[in-house]
Amino acid sequence: MSDTLEGLLQEGRTFPPPAEFRKTALDTDASVYDEAERDWQGFWATQALELDWTKEWDTILEWELPFAKWFVGGKLNVSYNCLDRHVDAGHGDQIAFHWEGEPGDSRALSYRDLLEETCRVANTLRSFGVEKGDRVAIYMGMVPETVAAILACARIGAPHSVVFGGFSAQSLKDRINDAQAKVLITGDGAWRRGAVVALKDIADEALADTPSIERVLVLQRTKNDVAMQAGRDVWWHDTVPGQAPECACCEMDSEDLLFLLYTSGTTGKPKGIMHTTGGYLTQCAYTHKHVFDLHPDTDVYWCTADVGWVTGHSYIVYGPLANRTTSVLYEGTPDFPDKDRFWSIVEKYKVTTFYTAPTAIRTFMKWGDEYPARHDLSSIRLMGTVGEPINPEAWVWYYKTIGGERCPVVDTWWQTETGAIMISALPGATKLKPGSATFPLPGIGAGIVDDAGKPVGLPGGGYLVLERPWPSMLRGIWGDPQRYRDTYWSRFDGKYFAGDGAKRDEEGYFWLLGRVDDIMLVSGHNISTTEVESALVDHPAVAEAAVVGKVDDTTGQAIAAFVILRSGVEPRDELVDELRNHVAELIGPIAKPKSILFTEELPKTRSGKIMRRLLRDVAQDQALGDTTTLADPAVVDGIKSRYFAAAPTED
User: Fold this and answer.
1) What domains can you pick out in the chain, each with its CATH number?
2) What span, in angstroms and rounded, lies between the C-alpha atoms of 392 and 505?
3) Are 188 and 226 in contact (CB under 8 A)?
4) Contact (Cβ atoms closer than 8 angstroms) between residue 189 and residue 199
5) Is there a smaller number of Cβ atoms within 10 Å at the N or the C end of the chain?
């Protein structure tokens, strides 16, 4: 990326923290960055003291590249920090979760309610013979019992492996077998767009080849018919309610394994990312509190992710509960029964903090302003984005249409591997730029290097790296320390390579450019898919876009674009030329898409990420790769048939 195009999509719009927001903000002075930098280990130790430890640590950090140990010798329990200490302090009646089921049923769980249910599940697991260090797999929908199951595992020292409820039987089997899980917690089903996802049936298919599983605990949610294997399977309602509502916490070492979370690997074998206890909870709690400017007595916080992803682990469960947050937990999709479901929930619970993905925001744009306009969104005071870079126009739409031009937008960069947010604004202290994640948080060392690993000056672009350890960092890949070294630490000496490209502008603001494998080489120039997609979405007719590089005899690679138009805009030949010229004006002629296909949908995973690999297969007329993780596998077939019916656009 040594010749990455610089200065692309220069963003002149800036948004300082609103005066009203600053009056109550936790951070209003940027000097916190300098203070943290002077003693970054001491900074993190100060944040760790916000937790309750049964024994304080002896050493803040032991660092033997690439292996870190944080708060060495310290003892604590994560479940206690998320529940008991709040109840003991007199906050047992505070709502932990407003739960909204997709069919319209709802529940409110107090911290005391959640603590008692967690204890009952923990006692159930112990009755199954689960001991400290045994792994427990969790394959459930977005229901409060899922949170209780996660916290129950943490309570008794049994590392959990949560598998997203949209994954296939093969994916579940692979994760159970790699972790050698002893127990599976699942449900009969989960609701999605008015239909039942048959979780137990899928689990049974996986369990046909998972010899380590001894017991299966099944929650009844959708009441679809399921098979129950005698001696192995037990119903939640027959087992959990009869357990005692008290359960002693297991004292955990700061470096004891808290959970495994599997992420896709280039070899086809999922990587079991290992996260431990003290450092992970420290950074989750700090970042949740300060990035979202959390006020536990007044805020109602909603992260729209699924608990099956790291965002759900860190910013639905652990960070919010450690900070005594009142949260919203929603079971279903944003378009059921209509496209205003999210906004009806915001209005119902008077949500103050809303955290969602750029893909969702662009979808809301496509649906039109009429849906949020149906509801009172004035309770919102802060908004966030997570999962991928957000293009400036989507940022501005979010700021204006959802936030009413009064709410800061924190664009957060982090990964499954980092465990917690790494780059983001502090909303009361940072001047915002649409599309920029702004700066590394206090205590975080991040930089951008060239192909040789040398720092890139301002302005400049290259590879995003992390230059020193951080508390919530992964501690390795389960069962494969060499793969951990090779995957994350071999590209640049002494630096963690995140796999993402980034640039900084003249003021040092970070702009994420997406995965480096989403860099297209056109006539010798490296062009980020994110840059071209942002340029396309900058056009008022475009709601969402995805671009890929395809083999071209002349330029090496050519850009193929797949475009979703905004509601009410009709596709036409003249618009193709208009969009190509629009990209040329914003980036340069080198970035003009060679072909543009208008489509109603894009191939996305169930977590909302665009699968550009499949679009690349379409553009190059190759056999389609694995489509099992798609939310709707039929989408890519429809795109393929239309792509070859349309003549490519060229100069």
Assistant:
1) 523-645 (3.30.300.30)
2) 15
3) yes
4) yes
5) C
